Fold this protein.
Amino acid sequence: MLELLRQAFLDPIKLMPRILHWFLRFSILNPICIRLIGSASRRNRDLLIRSFYLGVLAAVLIFGLLAITATGRLSLRELAAGSANVFIILAILQFILICVLTPLFMVSAISKEAEPRTWDVLLTTPMSPTQIVLGNLFGRLFFIVALSVAALPLMVVTQFFGGVPLETILLTQLVAICLAILIASLAIAVSVTRTAGRKAAVGFFVITIVVLATTFGVDQFIRVQVSVGLLNHYTTILTPFNPFLVLETILSPSNYIVPTTSTSPQPLAWMEMNPVQGWCWFTLLTSAILVVWSSMKVRTLGVRQTGQSKFSFLLTPTASHHKAVSGNPIAWRERVTRHRHLGSLFVRWGFLSIALLTCIIMTTLFLTGIVQPAAFRDSMTIIVITEMLIVLFAAITLSASAISKEREDGTLDLLLTTAMTPKMYLHGKVKGLVIHLLPMVLAPCITMVAIGSVVLAAPNIAIVPDALPNDYETVIPLALYGGALTMPFLFLPFVAFCIAIGLMWSLRSKGSIGAIVTTLTLVSIIIFGLGLCVIPLRTTEYARAFFSSLSPISQLFAVMHGATTLPKLLAEGIATSNAWIAACSVLSGFLWTLICWGLLKSMTTSFVMTVRRLAGQR
């Protein structure tokens, strides 16, 4: 008996049932899971990401509650309605942050192990492929679930004013956790098919945005009204497959109504009538399938490619493709080396072609009367936002890895032995990356110019059924053509600014993944912070329009939804609104150009010192 107690005290795992010990080895006692949680808990980068997540939610909560009480004495019903609106903003923001942060935590989970050549050692351990995958999954997912749990007290604060049931808060967190599990499983599945974390991050992020935007946009077209003349609609078969649509059923059950019957085949009918349960089961089953598939593919990461593909001649330049160096040599190098890949050409020009085709189809449907003006405006808003997010993420990813990747493979050491100056090097990087991304940047710009041209050419039909507060006479156009036509003057300098930020952190960071995470965090803070600046200025006219034009995302909403975003300015007249928003867009583009120039000048001054400080570090 004493011997049994001694063994239990020294090694309690031996007394566990075999089935429990087997289960724990795949979950919390997984060696990889323990290593990831232990090492990441000591990294400053992960601490900053977690602090940023909670800080953003706390800032939104504080500003929202202050905005509720800023107007003076309110009734209990108005306080409850304002609290409910703040909770809706918090829930949507939480979902957006999960979609952004989960890939950053997850994509490098397995591919990062291949960079320092530790896979050969890892695959020789007694751990099975399933243990390797689940260890990475649970180890990285721990931080996302911890963020959701940490945000729960902030959500509960909204109950102080009433209007937000506890069941709604818990269901929102459940949907968010299921979203994190699905994205984590997808990221693991993507990472086991790649050997570089940067490529996996770009592809995964783009696919996530496209799928969410596509399902949300299609849902807007296939929705069925409850009755003619009302604004409420029934859920569709796409509702349980999009977390934002599921969130809408929870937050707005009177406008997005769950039907009691469905004509869809099973199990789609059950999922349509139970969107929350359907989403949970869909995410769990899909995640299980992805984990099994990843376990089957995980050992392929240990296989090195020893030969070229039989189609490698399509990607390899020949002597006939040689181009002479002209202008800035770094810009020439960025342009030639990136443009010669068939995959790069297909992605960039394919993105532009799809964007133009979508714009032509939607505009044709609108001009022929098939699509109503309000539906056309909402659809084009979703399309342009998706295009902007993809372009910005591509700019951040390429720029944040431009210098750090050259430091990792030793190319930077060779370039520093030449007569290249820091100014020539950095300006060449910016110029080359801007030219490389130009086809993608043109996609949202051309779309917005097309929308502005439609409003100018057909003002009689480009009218939406919006109304200004206490004003039923002003006719609201589909979009403010002044801001739509000047969008390129704002978006291109903003992309250059994002590239400059990415280069700055690529210069200061040891690795590409850390530079991408930091740059993406900073750009998100800037975009979201500029959006918050608009909230206290809702009673002003011109200042609100100016701050809305500083960010391309907020400027898009100001152009497409002027009655909601800029009601005071529209009350001054549509012509005045168009002229002011156009002037603000051009001025904002000039400001971003100055900021970009200042960042490059600062980096040029500290370039040599920073490179020497990180010299030899891999």
Q: What stands out?
A: Strands lie at 233-234, 256-257. Residues 37-66+73-115+126-299 form one domain. Confidence is low (pLDDT under 50) at residues 304-326.
